[in-house]
Amino acid sequence: MNRLPDEARTSRLSLHLLKTSDAALMLAVLNDPGFIAKVGDRGVRSLEAARCYIEQGAVASHEHAGLGIYRLDVTVTGAAAGICGLFQRPWLPYPDVGFALLPEFRSQGYALEATQAVLVLGFGTLGLPRLGAITSAGHDRSIHVLERAGMRFEGFVKPEGEAGQLRLYIKDRP
């Protein structure tokens, strides 16, 4: 089975597979008011809960499916800016790319740069034929990033247990 590499680089970012030692970053991302409003409240409120969230999510996904989430570090400063990676949702037939940046790193092109890198890895390294992305209908910033990354709107999906519909974007392997 092919797996995402442990590390990757873009012109401005270093991507490192998320580890339990990244719990402070994950805690900050998951409790950012913008994340909670646009993505949802995951109920992670402590470093220990963030470690478990990473272990049961990102680490397990990499071990079992070759997918995973990267910590995004700004190369020039080394600052952790957020996360980006590939997820396998039980209600989607293909993996989807997701990203979240801390407020001070938004609107600088990092989300697009990371998304493009993860798409390249998904299609190239993993050989996936199709990748998706989901976002809430009113999340204009995410919609803009997905469209600039070459993803196209496919329609709406309503995952079981979710209150509303999500916008589904797809991109096929070039």
Present the secondary structure layout:
Elements: E1 7-9, E2 13-17, H1 23-30, H2 33-38, H3 47-65, E3 68-74, E4 80-87, E5 96-101, H4 110-123, E6 130-136, H5 140-148, E7 152-157, E8 166-172
Antiparallel strand pairs: 1-2, 2-3, 3-4, 4-5, 6-8, 7-8
* Helical/strand content category: alpha+beta
Number of strands: 8
Adjacency order of strands in the biggest sheet:
1-2-3-4-5
Largest sheet: 5 strands, antiparallel
Quaternary structure: single chain
> Quick check: average pLDDT?
96
* Percent range of helical residues: 25-40%
Envelope shape: globular
Textual characterization of the structure:
- By secondary structure, the protein is an alpha+beta fold.
- Helix content is 32%, strand content 28%.
- It has helices at 23-30, 33-38, 47-65, 110-123, 140-148, and strands at 7-9, 13-17, 68-74, 80-87, 96-101, 130-136, 152-157, 166-172.
- The chain has a five-stranded antiparallel sheet, with helices on both faces. It has a three-stranded antiparallel sheet with strand order 6-8-7.
- A hairpin with an 8-residue loop joins strand 7 and strand 8 (166-172).
- Helix 1 (23-30) crosses helix 3 (47-65).
- It is globular.
- The two termini are 21 Å apart.
Keywords:
5-stranded antiparallel sheet, 28% strand, alpha+beta, 5 helices, 174 residues, globular, 3-stranded antiparallel sheet, 8 strands
Summarize the structure.
This protein has helices at residues 23-30, 33-38, 47-65, 110-123, 140-148; strands at residues 7-9, 13-17, 68-74, 80-87, 96-101, 130-136, 152-157, 166-172.
